[in-house]
Every structure is written in structure tokens, then in C-alpha cells.
TrEMBL record:
Transmembrane segments: 33-54, 104-125, 146-169, 194-222
Domain of life, source organism: Eukaryota
Molecular-function GO term, any one: peptide binding
Subcellular location: Cell membrane
Species the sequence originates in: Cyprinodon variegatus (Sheepshead minnow)
One annotated GO biological process: positive regulation of vasoconstriction
UniProt entry tagged with the keyword Zinc: no
Keyword rRNA-binding carried by entry: no
InterPro entries named among the record's database cross-references: GPCR_Rhodpsn (IPR000276), GPCR_Rhodpsn_7TM (IPR017452), Vasoprsn_rcpt (IPR001817), Vprs_V1A_rcpt (IPR001224)
PANTHER family: NEUROPEPTIDE RECEPTOR-RELATED G-PROTEIN COUPLED RECEPTOR, VASOPRESSIN V1A RECEPTOR
Annotated protein name in UniProt: Arginine vasotocin receptor V1a1
Family that this chain belongs to: Belongs to the G-protein coupled receptor 1 family. Vasopressin/oxytocin receptor subfamily.
Length: 268
């Protein structure tokens, strides 16, 4: 089985390319080119603005800002190595390049998507730890953040490596002399397994983690707000006398959760 690299490939009705025996719908192609162009410009301008703002601040980056920096870098990888190649593909209709370039492009396209998605997941996990387990934020939080970021890039690199084996420059149809960067699957179920893997790895699993983390974050914030409301109605002096050191520790924990809550609101 084979899977085409260009989304608009195929014998579709409408105005087709006269020089290619396997034409495409040019009207649909124009819409795709417009959408991809707007997405590319928005991604580049938006993420470069974030990186420029961080650079101009001249301050030591907090954990949240560190994750945002790498998330912007991952989004730029998506823009330049996923959206831009696909845009060029839509303009030329066919892939005009050697086999090794075909494999590299397909690898970088998936690498950017994995990195962007899982960087957001790691940033959410960091917020979950800061809010639901505030005492752990005192245990080398910056070092943990760098480990999470490095592991994200490493995992993205590994998970996207199979692209080198799946995609190659080959004839659209045997004997057609028309070449494109297509994916090949030995078994009939290969295409279905590939689509399932990409869908689960880039969409389903990350969404499940995000829902889990934000669910517990909302639960912790709600409990914290209820706790603060009860404290306001009590006598602060008597409560401090009864609680002693434990009370001061509890207040410190509440303060930590409040700061983490503020960062989470800014992040979202």
C-alpha cells in the first residue's frame, strides 16, 4: 500500500495540471496554499515575538518561561519544517528532490509535531506538580525542568525516526515516470496502523494527559479557595496560636499554590 505526500493528489474533477497525467483540483489547491501561507506567517510572527520578548526582558527565566521558550522553538520547527515544506509541495504539486531529502523532510515534519505537542504536555505536568504537590517545587525545580525539556526533544527525535523507513521517492504508479515522496507499507494493515499510531501519539494520549492534569489542578484550586474562605471567617490570632509551626507551614503551602495558580492562569 502507498500513501501520497501531497494532500490534494489524485484524479479529482475540475481543472487539472496538463503536464501531469495524474492531475489535481486546482481550486482546492489554491485554498490549501492560502491557508498554509496564513498559518506559516502567523506561526513565525507569533513565536518570534514571544522569543524576542523573552530576550529583551534580560531576566533569568522562570520554569514557566523556560517551557514557553522551548514550546515556541518547537512551534517554529513545525512552521519551517512542516508547514513550509507542505506549502511548497502544494505549489509544485510533486516533490522535486532526491530520495534522502524526501526522507529528511518527512522526518522533520513529524518531529516538529511531536515536539510541540509533548512540550505542552510537559509544561502542563510542571504546573500540575507546582499546584498539586507544592513541596516538590523546592527540590531542584530548574534541574527537573531541563530534564523534562531534554527528554521531550529526545523522545520526539526517536518517535519520528520511523519516517525514514516508511517514506521514499518513488513512482506514483509503476511505469508512469511520475515521482513523488510517498509512504510504502508491506502489509495491508500498515496504513491503518500508521494513522492510528500518529493519531494516538500526537492527539489522543496528549489530550488525555492534559485533561487529567487540568482536572486535578482545578480540583486543587477549588479546595484552596474554600480553605481560604474558611480562614477569613476565623480568628487569625487564635488560629495561629493553636496551629503553631504547622499553621505557618500550611500558610506557606497556600501561598505557594496561589503563586502557581497565577502562573497557570497566565499560561492558559
Amino acid at each position: 500500500l502507498e500513501i501520497g505526500a501531497a494532500g490534494s493528489a489524485g484524479n479529482l474533477s475540475g481543472k487539472t495540471n496538463d503536464t501531469d497525467p495524474f492531475g489535481r483540483n486546482e481550486e482546492v489547491a489554491k485554498i490549501e496554499i492560502t491557508v498554509l501561507s496564513l498559518a506559516f506567517v502567523a506561526a513565525v510572527v507569533g513565536n518570534l515575538s514571544v522569543l524576542l520578548a523573552m530576550y529583551k526582558s534580560r531576566r533569568k527565566l522562570s520554569r514557566m518561561h523556560l517551557f514557553m521558550k522551548h514550546l515556541s522553538l518547537a512551534d517554529l520547527v513545525v512552521a519551517f519544517f512542516q508547514v513550509l515544506p507542505q506549502l511548497c509541495w502544494e505549489v509544485t504539486f510533486r516533490f522535486y528532490g532526491p530520495d534522502f531529502l524526501c526522507r529528511i523532510v518527512k522526518h522533520l515534519q513529524v518531529l516538529g509535531m511531536f515536539a510541540s505537542t509533548y512540550m505542552m504536555v510537559m509544561m502542563t505536568l510542571d504546573r500540575y506538580i507546582a499546584i498539586c504537590h507544592p513541596l516538590q517545587t523546592l527540590q531542584q525545580p530548574t534541574r527537573r525542568a531541563y530534564i523534562m525539556i531534554s527528554s521531550t526533544w529526545a523522545c520526539s527525535l526517536v518517535l519520528s525516526t520511523p519516517q525514514y523507513c516508511i517514506f521514499s521517492l518513488s513512482e506514483v504508479r509503476p511505469g508512469s515516470a511520475v515521482y513523488d515522496c510517498w509512504g510504502h507499507f508491506v502489509e495491508p494493515w500498515g496504513l491503518r496502523a500508521y494513522i492510528t499510531w500518529i493519531t494516538a501519539g500526537i492527539f489522543l494520549v496528549p489530550v488525555a494527559v492534559l485533561v487529567f492534569c487540568y482536572g486535578f489542578i482545578c480540583r486543587a484550586i477549588w479546595r484552596n479557595l474554600k480553605c481560604k474562605t474558611r480562614r477569613k471567617s476565623a480568628d487569625a490570632v487564635v488560629e495561629a496560636t493553636k496551629s503553631g509551626i504547622l499553621g505557618r507551614s500550611s500558610v506557606s503551602s497556600v501561598s505557594t499554590i496561589s503563586r502557581a495558580k497565577l502562573r497557570t492562569v497566565k499560561m492558559t
